[in-house]
Write a structure and sequence with these properties.
single chain, globular, 6-stranded mixed β-sheet, 4-stranded parallel β-sheet, alpha/beta
Amino acid sequence: MSSSAVRLPVPRVPGAPGRLQDNPVPGHKRVLLAAPRGYCAGVDRAVVAVEKALERFGAPVYVRKQIVHNIHVVTELESKGAIFVEEVDEVPPGAHVVFSAHGVSPAVVEAASDRGLQAIDATCPLVTKVHREAVRFARDDYEILLIGHDGHEEVEGTAGEAPGHVTVVNSPAEADRVEVRDPTKVVWLSQTTLSVDETMETVRRLRARFPELADPPSDDICYATQNRQVAIKKIAADADLVIVVGSANSSNSVRLVEVALEHGARAAYRVDFAHQVQQEWLEGVETIGVTSGASVPEVLVREVLADLAGAGYADVQEVRTAEEDLMFSLPKELRDDRARGGRQRA
């Protein structure tokens, strides 16, 4: 995998001057900034969908679950008039409701319809692809081994497309224990935000037990998840410390911490905000790797970089391993300004 490193100017954003101390270290202090990082096309589409719905229909607009797994994004949208609910039965009849980027099951769609809700489906198109695969394999009476995390909204939505056909496999260890009805008619699918390496290890163990295990027609782990993992792998071996900006319920952000540690980082931590970076993490640290999950706006990364610059880490080198230019059109209910349907990362 080719990559390039480019020195960037120190970001100028409001911060907490002097919060982190500039303590001496044996060598040169620097930051390796992963690219790609932050917003992916599916997250961008979902966030813009809520914003456009508020502009078009006025507040409040209801959103089932968090539109994306990032506390800053949710708080910002709440300030604009979005109301987040756990289930559609909390939404007043006839109101507008947005389904999150993680997708919903047909049962949720039906429940919204029964309440007369005006539904806007902001499901990431890559998640929708997995839903369609589940429907197709269930129609052909395959047993579906869905690699993912029980309780995650995406897994619940995918499993709901094929009730009676899906068994969730949470880890490689579970692959050694799962049982199937017919080993000749079994297929694996996956949550889109998993660790690529761990997923492939789970598939390897499943195939060792079920040699006729079928593959999905195309890769289920999304391009953005893979790209962010490749970028942090490139940086991790050179990093004394890796800081991942992302929320605790963001699967892809949590995976980035794990990937960094697996690929050589001495330490790795996840933070929602710059003020959560701890002084003790910086002791003796020369090189810090910084990245962010696929639902994280760039402003949060820039705030981390500003705080680190105050601690002497002003040399920021962006390490780019891929280019991303994919954009998804808005949900059909919001699509009359298609040319401005997405936005570039700020």
